[in-house]
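ligand=guanosine-5'-diphosphate
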Amino acid sequence: MVKAVVGANWGDEGKGKITDMLAEKADIIIRFQGGANAGHTIVNNYGKFALHTLPSGVFYSHTTSIIGNGVALDITKLFNEIKDITDQGVPMPKILVSDRCQIVMPYHVLFDAYEEERLGGKSFGSTKSGIAPFYSDKYAKIGFQVSELFDEELLKEKVKRVCDLKNVLLEHLYHKPAIDPAELLETLHGYRDMVAPYVCDVSAFLDKAVKEGKTILLEGQLGTLKDPDHGIYPMVTSSSTLAGYGAVGAGLPPYEIKQIITVCKAYSSAVGAGAFVSEIFGDEANELRERGGDGGEYGATTHRPRRMGWFDCVASKYGCRLQGTTDVAFTVLDVLGYLDEIPVCVGYELDGKVITDFPVTSKLEKCKPVLEKLPGWKCEIRGIKKYEDLPENCRKYIEFIEERIGYPITMISNGPGREDIIYRESVLKR
Ligand code: GDP
């Protein structure tokens, strides 16, 4: 059985916690897209961890953690992360890296920074992890696959060819130092030796696992609105964040994905630039940011303060639809307990009309939020285990949002820990 855990919105919905929780009953957890530019924060018995490259299953000894072919693999960061968790007492996880996975090169990270510098005020707010230059090169067919590290002839020729090209840009566009091909080849030899014990034909491994009835979790990064096709282009990430891409980025048949768990946060947050219709500012935003998540809404990778907003039914309905949601996991609900009234964005006003279908970016920029206020519950809901035991106004908030987005909320997360979860039967059909 293959399940996907993906985000409905701009990322940071709490996917890490939900994957970590579901990983308890999984055999294999696989990352299928993105790189070390975003991160999950996970709180468990070992402590609090920010994972950027490793799948969230690494804390269990019974699981195999896989870096799929769709991922932008930064080998140095991967190994630093493994060291980080093992230094903190986590047993060495079983890790496999797809032989078809491509590698983030040192120059990708540099080009990312140089391009942001060149764009100045018009920059995309990149995390400068090399992700956009990496995916550009992948599709321009000048990327380096893990398998290629093991073919010395090919590697030498390709390093030279790619350096010739990159050095023209470095010299004439960015006015920066050139790459030395010999030095780059050395670095790649180092990567080869580091990654060698983990390299695997992942699609063959997964094919066998599916036939043996293993439980496989596909772990997404960011959310629908950061998808390059269906998100707020161009303020998006460079690989697809959709469950559908899970099949491609892991190497599985699409029809094997039986459950798509879309994670939705009980309020909104976003990082980077781009339209964010339900955004709030000033003291209202500061208070939600400080109370949000587990210790404040700050980026797991960059520690940048996140932009804050109320729950957006328009964006979330769209986000769930594009994922092909079978289940919504509604997270971080406990944070809202301080509010007397909770505004919810139920529509967008565009050119004098109210719309509830998420528009293309150029129209989105002109949208204003239509807010409806729901009564708050004014108490702590952490520790509650049963849906019926939640305060009435809290259940009303959940049911109101479920009706507006049109997808069944079957899990409610009321705290950062694995055990902070309430399962619920929904009246909505999957
Ligand atoms: P991800 O990238 O989607 O995994 O999201 P993040 O790691 O950025 O975000 C979620 C943050 O919220 C982390 O600090 C989690 O520990 C925390 N978190 C997750 N679920 C809950 C919850 O239900 N309640 C609270 N208070 N924090 C949560």
